[in-house]
Amino acid sequence: MDQRAGVTLEGVVKRFGDLEALAGVDIVLPEGKLVSFLGPSGCGKTTLLRIIAGLETPTEGRVHLRGVDITDKPPHMRDIGMVFQT
Fold this sequence. Notes:
4 strands, single chain
């Protein structure tokens, strides 16, 4: 695990019933960098951010913050913030 990585997602899958919202996402987001997710409505951007923030649990895969597995940590123990779009 790269300790310089801010957030690392390994094989993250999210299913809502028969709908697969995320299909095996692997990504390393460097600490201190600005990153944006672009895509059409319904492609999984918000689901991905909610998983990183701990507001959703991945069906499969792991989420790491600075090399520490936070997949099962509740949102208030992640040291991550999220601002919702309205």
